[in-house]
Design a protein that fits this description.
It is a single chain. By secondary structure, the chain is an alpha/beta fold. The chain has 29 helices and 25 strands. Strands 16-15-14-5-2-1-18-17 form an eight-stranded parallel beta sheet. Strand 12 and strand 13 form a beta hairpin. Helix 11 crosses helix 16 and helix 12 packs antiparallel against helix 16. The two termini are 26 Å apart. The relative contact order is 0.09.
Length: 797
Amino acid sequence: MIPRATYRLQLHSGFTFADAEAVVPYLADLGISHLYASPITVAARGSTHGYDVIDPTRINPELGGEEGFRSLIAALHARDMGCIIDIVPNHMGVAGDENLWWMDVAEKGRDSAYTGVFDIDWTGPLVLPVLGAPVEEAIAAGDIRVVTRGEGLGVQLYGGAVYPVRADDPALGEERSHYEGADGLAALLSRQHYRLTYWRAANDSLNWRRFFSINELAGVRVEDPAVFELTHRLYFDLYRRGLIDGVRVDHVDGLAHPAGYCRALRSAFDAIDPDRHAYIVVEKILAAGERLPVDWGTDGTSGYDFMREVSELLHDPAGQEPLGALWEEISGRPADFEAEALVARRDILSWQFEGQLTACVERFHALGQAVGEHWLTHGMIRRAVQALLHGFPVYRTYGTGIDAPPEDAAVRDAARAAALRSAAPGEGPVIDLILGGLAGEGRAVTDLAADAVRRFQQLSAPIAAKGVEDTAFYRHGVLLSVNDVGFDPGQFAASVEAFHEAMARRAGDHPGAMLATATHDHKRGEDARARLAVLSTIAGEWGAEVARLLELAVPHADGVDPADIYMLFQTLIGAWEPPADAFLARIHDWQGKTVREAKRRSSWEAPDEAYEARYRDLATALLMPGGAFAQAFGRFIEDLGPAAEANSIVQTALHYTVPGVPDLYQGCDGTDYSMVDPDNRRAVDYGARRASLVEGTNAKQALIAQLLHLRAKRPLLFAEGGYRPVLATGAQAQHVVAFLREREGETLFVAAAIRLGAALFRSDHAAPPGEWWGDTVVDGRHARDLFHEAPVHIAIF
C-alpha cells in the first residue's frame, strides 16, 4: 500500500471535493497513484488551509461533507488510485466561538468533559486573549455586552463571538439590565471560568499551550489515550471503510511524545487490518545529519529533508563566500547565518514565548528542589533554559524524563557546548540539570521530570521554527534559495558524495518516505529556487549586475533599507514574469509579509504602514512596463534561462528516480515560480495543464509524466530497488551525479549534470557544449555523449 506517487491538493470552500474529483482523470493520465489531501475535517469557517480544525470527528461540510468525500474516493478507486489525508493531532482552532469543545471548557472550566483535550495549566481562569483593548477599555467602549445564549446567557464581543456565562452564575436569575453597566459587567466577567484579556498580553499571560505564537490555535493533549481515541476516531473509521490508505501527520514535533504517538498510530491502523499497511509519514524537519528513528513505525518524513538535499546539489559551494561578501557590502548585516539566527531566536523567545518559558522554568525549578538542589533559583534556571534554547541544534529531543533515545546524546552535547559559551560563570551545573532531565536522569522524580522535559521539548521546536524559519530567513539575504523550510543557509551546498549517502540511507531506513520539492509551506517555488541557485555559480557576474540594477533602483528607493532592496531583487529573480498588474500585486503582497515577518522595519503587531508603502512604491517603479529596470532585468532573466531550466530538469529527474515516494505539489506539474503563502496556494489552471500534457508543450511536465509512467511499469524496481552511486572521472567530474537503482535483474541508470551556470549563463544551449566536458567519463561513457541534448540521461535495462 505504499503509494507510487502522490499529488497534493489544497482543499477549501473555493476548491472542494467536487473540484478535486474533476481533476482525477488528469492525475490518472499524469501517472499519480494517490491523491494527498490537505486536512478534510471541520475547520474554522472560511479556512483556506484546514489546519485550524474545530471538530476532528466530522468531515468538513464546506468541502462537500462525507457524501462529497465518498464520491471523490469512488472516482479515485475507479482508476485504481487511492487517498492519503493530512491530519492535525497537535492543535485545534479556537478563534471566536465556533469550537464547541473550547466553548464547553470556557463554560464549565475543569468540570468540562473536554478539559483534558486541551493543554491547559489550571493555575487560574482560562486566559482568552480576544479583546482589542484592555478589558476596562473594552467595557467602556461598549465592545462587550450580555446576550441570550441558548437557555442561558452569553458575553458577546465586538465582532460577534459569544462566550458562555457559567450555568451556575447568579446573573441567570437576575435582570439582565444589571449587567449592562460597567461595574456589573466587570463583576460578571470576574466570576467566569475564563478571563477575557487584551490580545497583546497573550505572549506573557497565556496559561495554555498554543501552536507557535498563534492565539487562535490551542495545543491538544493527544498523549492522553482518551484524547487520542476521540480525536482520531474519524481517521480510523475512514481507513476501516477503505476510504483512505494512510495519513500525513502535521507538526509531529509539537506533540508531547512523538515516538509514542507514532507507535500508537501504527498500532491502531494495524489492529484494523493486520494484512494491510497504512501509509504514515510525518512532517518532521530534519537538520543535516539528523535521522528519523526507524523504530517510530512510520514510513518516513513528508519530504522537507529531500527538498534540502536536492537543492544542495544545485548550488555551488564556491559561491557562498563572494555572495556573503556582497550581502554584507549592500546590507551591513552579517553573512554568517548563525549570528543572524542567534539574534532572531533570542528575539522570539523574549517577545513571544514568555508564558511557556515561565512554565518550563517553574517545572525545572521544582525538579531541582525535589532532587535536593535547593541552591537553584528561578533566575538560574531561566538563564540556563534560555542559553540552551538560543543555540539548540535541532528542533527538539525525544526524552520522556525517565529515558531518552541514544540518538539524542550528540544533540545534548552540542547544545551544552553552545549554551556554556553564553552561560553565567558557575552556572554550568544548572545547564546540566536540564540536560540530565532530557537524558532521562530525573532521579526517580518521574512526574516532575516528565513534565519539565515535555515543556522544554515543546518549546524548543517553536523557537526553532519561529526564530529561524519565520524570522531569520526574512532578515538574511545572502541567497534566498537556501532560505527554505528545513534548509540551512549556513551551508549552501553539499558534496555529491553526501547526496549519495543520504539517498542510500533513505533506501535502507525509509524507502517509502515522501519526497517533496515544493509544499504549501515553502518560501519559494521549486523552479524559483532552481533559478536563484544559478547565482551561486556566477557570483561575479551577479555582483556586476547588482551594481547596475542598484543604479536604476536608487532614485526610487528613498527611505528603503538596502537589505530589503537586495532581497526584492532576488525575489524578482525567482518569481519573474513579464511585468503585469497581477504580478505586481503578488510582489506587493510578498513585500508586506516579508518585512513584517522580519520584525525589523515593520511587524504584524505594529505595522509601519509608511515604510511598507515606500517599499511597495519602489517595486511599482521598478516594474513599470517598458522601464529601464524592467528591460534590464528581463534581459538578465533571459541570460539565466538555460542554466535555470537545466536546474529544474535535473531537480525533477532526481525527484522521480531516487528512493522514496515523489510528492507533486499542486501546480508544480508546470513551472512553479511561486512565493511564500498565500502565493504558493493560488488556484491552478488544470485546463491548461491537461492541454499541455496532451500536446507535450511543457518539458518539465513531459518528463514528470514519462517518469511516473515508468514507475507504474516497474513499481518494484522503484519501491524496493537499491541505490548504488556511480562516480564520474575527468575534468568536470564535480558536475555529475549518477546512480543505479537495481532489483532482480532490472536496472535504472540515472546521470545528471549539475551546477552548470558557468557553462550555460548567457548561452542559448540546453546543455553544455561537448568540448566543455573534456575527458569527463560516467560509467564508461563520455559525459559529452550523455548530456549532448539535455542535462539528464535516464536508461532502464
